C-alpha cells in the first residue's frame, strides 16, 4: 500500500518528525513531497497517483477535484484536529474516509498563552526590543495576574487546562460557552456579553465554524474594559480584524496578543501584528516536539489500523466510506 505525505521538508521536520516517519516507512510505501511550496490540487493529483492514503498538512487544501482525480484514494488523514482544509462533503460523496488526530498540543498552547498573558501585563517583548535597539525602555507599571480576571470564550480541552493553570496563579476565571457544562465551582459560567464587560483578559478559545465567524466584532470589543487585553489562540476567522485594529488604534482596549490570524497558514495578519500594542507569534502554539510527535503518531496509529483492515481512530465520515480496502 502507498501513502502520500504532503508536508514540505521543513514542515515535515517540525510538525511530523523522524520517529513517526520511520514507522510509516515500516508500514507502507511512503511518497514524500520535496518541494518548498505546498502542493496545489493539480500537484496533489500528480503526486498522489497510485496512493491509497494521504496525510495532508495544514497548508495543503484537499478540494473536490482531488477526490475525482484520484479514484484510488481511500483515506485522507490530518495530523491535527482542524480538517477545514479538506472538503469533507466532497470526500464523503466520493466515498473517501477523512480522519483527524487528537489534541496533542493542549499543554503547549496553554503554556504559550500564559507567556503571552505575562508579556501583555509586564511589557517583556517591548522592553527587550528597546534594549536590542539600544534604547532605554519606558518604565511602566505592570499588572499582576494574581487577583485579575480572565474570561475564556469557549470551554474545550485547551480552555479547561488553561482555566486550571490560571486558577493556580490566583486568577478569577469566567467562562462563556453555550454548549459546555462548567462543573468546577471555581469557574463562573455566564453569557459572553457579561464576560466581555468583566474580564481583564479576554481569551478566545472557541471552535472555528460558521456560527463563530467574526464572533469577536466591533460590538464585542466595545463591551470590553478600556484597560483589558484580548488574546486569540483559536483561529483568525473568529475575529473581525478591522474592528480589532480600530479598537487597538483608538485605545479602546489596552492591547492584544495572538498566535493565529487570517494570513496564510493561519498566521497573524501583518497589519495587526505590526501595531505597537500587539504581541504576535507565527502560529507556533503547538510547535513543540511533544505536541507535534503526539499528533503525528496518531496518524501512524491510523495507518496501522488501516493496513490491518480496521477502522482507524479519528474517522469523521465513516458512514460514507465506500472506497474501502
Key phrases:
325 residues, alpha/beta, 7-stranded parallel beta sheet, 13 helices, elongated
The proportion of residues in beta strands is 5-15%
Mean pLDDT: 95
Order of helices and strands: EHHEHEHEHEHHEHEEHEHEHEHEH
The largest sheet has its strands arranged as 8-7-6-9-10-11-12
Spatial extent as radius of gyration: 21 Å
Kindly name the structural category. Answer: alpha/beta
**Shape, per Cα inertia axes:** elongated
Helix content: 25-40%
Q: What's the total number of strands?
A: 12
* First and last CA, distance: 10 Å
Count the helices. How many? 13
Give the biggest sheet.
7 strands, parallel
Low-confidence stretches: none
Secondary-structure topology with pairs:
Layout: E1 2-5, H1 9-16, H2 18-27, E2 29-32, H3 41-48, E3 53-56, H4 64-69, E4 75-78, H5 88-94, E5 97-99, H6 106-122, H7 124-132, E6 149-153, H8 157-168, E7 172-176, E8 187-189, H9 192-198, E9 201-204, H10 218-223, E10 229-232, H11 241-249, E11 255-258, H12 270-273, E12 278-280, H13 289-307
Parallel strand pairs: 1-2, 1-3, 3-4, 4-5, 6-7, 6-9, 7-8, 9-10, 10-11, 11-12
Helix pairs in contact: 2-13, 6-8
